[in-house]
Write a structure and sequence with these properties.
Number of helices: 13
Number of domains: 2
Radius of gyration: 29 Å
Number of strands: 8
Shape: elongated
Distance between the termini: 12 Å
């Protein structure tokens, strides 16, 4: 066979480009939605979370506590007050609204899976009342995955969290157990606040939280120092597969000014800043699912931030993934490689009898 002599004719290149475009269109048309991994678990968790949300909303209506239609446009009943006697620290309303999407439970399923958690495992849970919807979603995931959570609650809440009198997090926790959705309860609780013992809260606020714990039958621990609260948590979480840290508990991060990323954390932590339960667990080789910034997690998992209209359960990229036909892609790639090889290596113009640039005609045998 005659090897290539000279440059490739531009019309040959145009034809090759046209074939490439046709292959590209064909491969793109082969895209089809495919259920993501853990689809059934994600869907069941989101549905169970929505059922729990409805139970809280109904209970709130029974209490006669009004739902703010401006700050809680979807009427979830899971958005609290800007400030109350049990509020410690500011948090964003957009974060609170983002967590009220039941599909956030599907993101928790994915994060726990990435952390190595499997059905039947024990997990440590350290949270406060800042994101009650997120707490509920985690419990729904635990029920669906048959997990064994060891829960420690710092009772104070950030703005827009579980800070209504009679609707502190332990009140909600007790309600959901009575509703028969699951039987998860906090092992013990602190008052939270600046030092995990209620600093920054008024005496009336601390009394409200103590009463909520007593009504729920949850022991209240008052750490002599933040370090004691951290050590107690580390002892409680021995043997767990992973730690889930939700909210703004000072015992988790060691310092409320610390910027701990909201994602799955693993490996040795940086040796800077104050130690917290997160760092203590990482030093033991235990991964941590950290959510202090729900909006960032929502963006990472293609969930809406502060949704004006509640998304439908089971819709979105957490449930369905776009996948191309592997067979068609492989065939198209192979054919393009063959065509490129022929064009570069052999003088196709000579075989086809095309007139060359020097005016001579190629011979056809």
């Amino acid at each position: 066979m005659r090897r290539r002599q000279g440059k490739v004719n531009r019309w040959v290149l145009v034809a090759l480009a046209g074939v490439s475009v046709l292959f590209f269109i064909a491969v793109n048309r082969s895209v089809r939605p495919v259920r993501s991994r853990l689809y059934d678990t994600k869907l069941a968790s989101a549905r169970l979370a929505a059922q729990a949300f409805a139970a809280v909303r109904d209970y709130r209506q029974q209490l006669g506590t009004p739902i703010d239609s401006v700050n809680d446009p979807n009427g979830t009943g899971l958005v609290g007050l800007l400030y109350s006697q049990t509020t410690y620290g500011r948090s964003d309303l957009s974060d609170a609204l983002t967590t009220t999407n039941p599909n956030f439970a599907a993101a928790l399923v994915e994060m726990l899976h990435r952390a190595g958690v499997r059905p039947g495992d024990s997990i440590g849970v350290s949270w406060d009342g800042t994101y009650p919807a997120l707490n509920i979603e985690l419990l729904a995931v635990a029920r669906t995955m048959n997990l064994r959570p060891v829960i420690v609650t710092a009772q104070s809440a950030g703005s827009w969290g579980a800070n209504y009198p009679g609707l502190a997090w332990l009140d909600i926790e007790r309600l959901l157990v009575r509703a028969g959705l699951w039987n998860y309860r906090s092992a013990w609780a602190t008052l939270g606040g600046e030092n995990d013992a209620g600093r920054g809260l008024s005496p009336e606020g601390r009394a409200i939280l103590v009463a909520a714990a007593e009504s729920s039958g949850v022991p209240v621990v008052t750490p002599a120092s933040p370090t004691e609260g951290i050590d107690r948590r580390a002892d409680a979480f021995k043997g767990v597969r992973a730690l889930v840290s939700i909210g703004r508990s000072v015992a988790d991060v060691g310092d409320l000014k610390a910027r701990v990323p909201s994602r799955v954390l693993a490996g040795r932590p940086a040796r800077n800043g104050k130690a917290g339960a997160i760092r203590a667990m990482l030093e033991q080789g235990i991964p941590v699912v950290r959510i202090g910034n729900p909006s960032q997690v929502a963006i990472d998992f293609h969930l809406p931030v502060s949704p004006g209209r509640m998304p439908e359960i089971g819709k979105g990229r957490l449930y369905l993934e776009r996948r191309y036909s592997v067979v068609l892609s492989a065939i198209a790639s192979l054919m393009l490689l063959v065509l490129l090889g022929l064009v570069v290596r052999y003088d196709l113009e000579w075989y086809l009898g095309v007139r060359e640039e020097n005016g001579e005609c190629a011979e056809i045998s």
